[in-house]
Write a structure and sequence with these properties.
It is built from 14 helices and 22 strands. With 550 residues, the protein is of the alpha/beta class. The two termini are 27 Å apart. The structure holds zinc ion. This is M28 family metallopeptidase.
């Protein structure tokens, strides 16, 4: 089918009766929903706070009015609107006692300054480590499909592994880990998981700004406060007892103290024959208690049941939570309203729900999954993917929306990260009808692919992308789009000033939703199963469930 390329002005008034023309999305509704969700009354939508109840009540009422059905947990034989998400909350009590001993000389380390240790999420409520030896394990990567193993069978029981951030070819831009782009092996979450699998007592990640893609302030702010994880049967299988970061300067001192050269060993770590190196004569002690508690938050789940293959699912996802109430900004504002991040995505799910509920019934079922606790580490999506309400093997694809642009339309769009998969091909093909082109993630080395809710699905093999609004504005081009992007990053992103603005037109978002509707609707009416590209690290795990899709 050939779609007309519509000029942006004609969009809202277009009445051409093309059979499969996408529905129009109301900019008024989008604006009103974003305005409500990001108003001070919603207190920045912190999970497991009174604001959660308010948010759920509002989103559910909107979804109901839009004609969407509940798709959550089954209670008394009936689907409810939510999925309960139990979360482990852990906070260090007081100041942690941390001591590094070099050459017999103990030196106290200051939490937040040279080191940042996380409250334990391994199921324990205290950390008691006395003089544990330190072992440098390079990038801490064990990747059999790339014939790469930094551990080489080293025994890490009772020891602390010290590791570099990003993956072995970040520095050179050439090699087996996607060049500059970050693979999952480069992400700190992977490194801690692998340390636990290796039986290490703990792991310290050496912070360097370029390969981490953010500064020490971010490391400090996101690791020395309250930690959250989903409640796991065996948390110690993915979390070592001690998880922390150290500043590069401290690492250099530690290497020197052991008679080693940090830069030389880092270069060595970029090769296959790297072997773990003991930091001779050095040890770490850590003593602190944690206040741990299980709290319950919720994912909101709406559904439009498929007409032909209801057991097959297409998911639109996006998080409802934001940072809640926190430290005041210069104006004394303490409410982190999260208008762009992610009231826009939440409004998008409501309006996509309305489009599917009112449009021709799709053959596959479509889920509108408004997840919690994204800001605490993608936990709502992780919980859903670990405890899926509808089988992942028969989930055809996930289209995630997070922080859509509320301004005018752009000539391009992007996705987080540089993964290649059929869903992206579908997006690119459909975008042509809207006169839009795909612009690759300009900074795949920052690892945004692993920092958005679609990743909880991707790592389990489900084809999943996070859609990103474009920056080449129809009105003003790249200059205008980039200026707005920079303004947002600098003045609003994760700050109390991420607030609804009266001059937002929402015309770009309405157009982006047409594109997302088209791709999701085509997938929901297809019997195809788009896959990852042949060289993707997620393809093998998807293949394991291939028999269920016959
Ligand atoms: Zn977000």
């Amino acid at each position: 089918m050939k779609r007309l390329i519509l000029s942006t002005l004609a969009l809202s008034t277009c009445t051409l009766a093309i059979a499969a023309a996408p529905p129009t999305f109301s900019t008024q509704r989008l604006s009103a929903e974003v305005k409500t969700l990001s108003s001070d009354a919603f207190e920045g939508r912190g999970p497991a706070t009174p604001a959660e109840t308010r948010t759920i009540d509002y989103v559910v009422a909107q979804m109901k009015a839009a004609g969407v059905q509940p798709g959550g947990d089954i209670v008394d034989g009936k689907r409810t609107w939510t999925q309960a998400v139990p979360l482990l909350r852990s906070a260090i009590v007081g100041t942690p006692a941390l001591t590094l001993t070099i050459d017999g000389k103990p030196q106290a380390l200051t939490q937040g300054e040279q080191i940042a240790v996380r409250a334990p999420t391994n199921g324990s409520d205290s950390v008691t480590i006395a003089d544990a030896p330190l072992v440098f394990v390079g990038y801490g990567v064990k990747a059999p499909e790339r014939q790469w193993d930094d551990y080489k069978g080293v025994d890490l029981h009772g020891k602390i592994a010290v590791v570099l951030i990003n993956d072995p070819d970040f520095e050179t831009g050439k090699g087996d880990f996607g060049g500059k782009a970050m693979t999952y092996y480069g992400r700190w979450t992977y490194k801690y998981e692998e340390a636990a699998r290796q039986g290490a007592l703990g792991m310290l990640v050496i912070h360097e700004t370029a390969p981490a893609s953010y500064g020490w302030a971010t490391v400090k702010n996101s690791n020395t406060n309250t930690m959250f994880d989903i409640v796991r049967d065996k948390p110690a299988e993915v979390h070592p007892e001690l998880e922390g970061w150290i500043q590069r300067d401290l690492a250099v001192t530690m290497f020197k103290g052991a008679g080693l050269d940090f830069e030389a060993l880092k270069q060595k770590a970029q090769t296959r024959d790297f072997r773990p190196v003991v930091l001779k004569g050095e040890s770490l002690s850590a003593h602190f208690k944690a206040d741990t508690k299980v709290i319950t938050s919720h994912n909101i789940v709406g559904r439009v049941e498929g007409s032909k293959r209801p057991d097959e699912t297409v998911i639109y996802s996006g998080h409802w939570d934001h940072l809640g109430v926190g430290a005041p900004d210069a104006k004394g504002d303490r409410i982190y309203n999260g208008a762009v991040d992610n009231a826009t995505g939440t409004a998008a799910l409501i309006e996509l729900g309305r489009a599917f509920a009112h449009g021709p019934r799709p053959q596959r079922s479509v889920i509108f999954l408004n997840v919690t606790a994204e800001e605490k580490g993608l936990l709502g999506s992780e919980y859903y993917a670990a405890n899926p309400l509808y089988p992942l093997a028969k989930t055809a694809g996930v289209l995630n929306v997070d922080a859509l642009d509320p301004h005018g339309p752009a000539r391009n769009f992007t996705i987080s990260g540089s993964a290649r998969l059929g869903l992206l091909d579908d997006l690119i093909a459909a975008a042509k009808s809207y006169g839009m082109v795909y612009t690759p993630d300009p900074k795949p080395e920052a690892g945004y692919f692993f920092r958005s809710d679609h990743f909880s699905f991707a790592k389990r093999g489900v084809p999943a992308v996070s859609f990103g609004s474009g920056n080449d504005w129809v009105d003003g081009g790249i200059a205008a789009g980039k200026a707005a992007e920079d303004d947002y990053t600098e003045k609003r992103y994760h700050q109390p000033a991420d607030e609804w603005q009266a001059d937002w037109s929402f015309t770009g978002m309405a157009r982006d939703l047409q594109l997302l509707y088209t791709v999701g609707n085509d997938l929901a009416n297809s019997d195809a199963w788009p896959d990852w590209s042949k060289d993707s690290e997620f393809r093998a795990i998807r293949d394991k469930s291939a028999a269920e899709r016959k």
